[in-house]
Amino acid sequence: MERAILHCDMNNFYASVECMLDPSLRECPVAVCGSVEERHGIVLAKNYKAKAYRVQTGDAVWQAKEKCPGLVVVPPHYEEYIKYSRLAREIYSRYTEQVEPYGMDECWLDVSGTEALFGTPEEIADRLRATIKFELGLTISVGVSFNKVFAKLGSDLKKPDAVTVIRKESFRDQIWKLPAEDLLGVGPATGRVFHRVGIHTIGDLAQTDPRYLRSWLGKNGELLWRFANGNDLSLVAKKDFIPPIKSVGHGITTVADLETPEQVWTVILELTQDIGHKLRSHGLSARGVAIHIRDNTLETRQWQTQLGIPTQASVILARSAFELFRKTYSWRRPIRSVTVQAISLIPQDMPWQASLFVDTEKLEKLERLERCVDDIRRRFGKNSIRQGILLRGAYMPPEKAEITMPAGMIH
Amino acid sequence: MNSRKVYVDVEVTHRKDGSARPNTITFEDEGKFEIDRVLQICRAASTKVGGTGIRYTVLISGKQAYLFDEENGRWFVEAKNRGNGN
Ligand SMILES: [Mg+2]
Predict the structure, then answer these.
(1) Is-catalytic flag, A106?
(2) A134 → closest Cβ in B45, B48, B50
């Protein structure tokens, strides 16, 4: 039986919630920005009016205001986003219990076999769209297809407040002409590899010999080839409520086996650079850290620990991860891959109970320092400022093939 | 904008089946109004003043109005702006 998968994407989610709650904002270009009062804030989300001025997620507030002098800047209200994210999932679950959240504002739904009950998948999509608008005052775009990857692609094609169907009989005409980057799993790094070898569209990818793709990109190359051909068989995971962004992690398979703690330290330090940055741009702090270590026989082990105090500071995450590693890894075999994850995330401005023996002043200083480094990197490039020890780091692969995948998609 | 959000005091009967029936609202300085009938209950967004909740379509002295339960203990109505000819 052909599956019926929907992907629902709430349009400009943070900004739309702000405009729904305060209708006086609707006529203005609006940007939701982290830590406005500090002037270090960056744009987390914007509405269509702000988009028209080319205000982008990640812009510094001053930059965004330069592009759009009338820009209304509002601080984020995470409790509201969490609330409306949950209410949307409740509406989706009227049609199926197979609802898989992907980030705070996106969900896959498997509505296979419900046609007799609820109508065609397209009709369900349209009813969801209308219901979300009526009950929550928000718009979604919905992709309808026979697999998750195409459903996701579909939800990006027409927005806001629209439904796009990608059918088995016609997907080649519909999407093969689109840029390869539009396909879930093709990040900037993979995109660059594709362009080097002349793959520009999803169709190019679909018609490339998978053996070549495997040699360029490993297992993921072949996976992406299957996606492009509509052969994504992954299931919509049934999940209970999970906090919107559960963890921020980064992992790497090193170019050579790691054999000493010093080598592991440089890799961990490198990985946490991005994690700290991501936490800051999402306005989140971590209360714990997890590590996944895979040795050269490809056996993976993982551990986690709680932090005394929530933090966004890369250095603290790195130190905690390394301490955890030193305490737990027995060095029976050299290491092939390391992943560090910031876990137990909370909004950065959520109050917390400080332990008596934590030097909060020092922590704040560290976090200020790192925001400053973020700033320098944003203006002068990622490699413009680095820890000295990382200059020796020969263990990272030259280009990080970044693939961000929802649960259950990589086998 | 022709409407504004006004939070109101509400007297509610919470029935043992979990449903609720608002009986009166106290609207700013205009005093207490009896809710004669509840015509419809649904989840809805207020397109006029923003926000969402459980929306009660109520009849007060023959006039229809929306009363929203935000489910956090607060209730609001969509009030007309004063002093501009309404
Ligand atoms: Mg979205």
Answers:
(1) yes
(2) B45
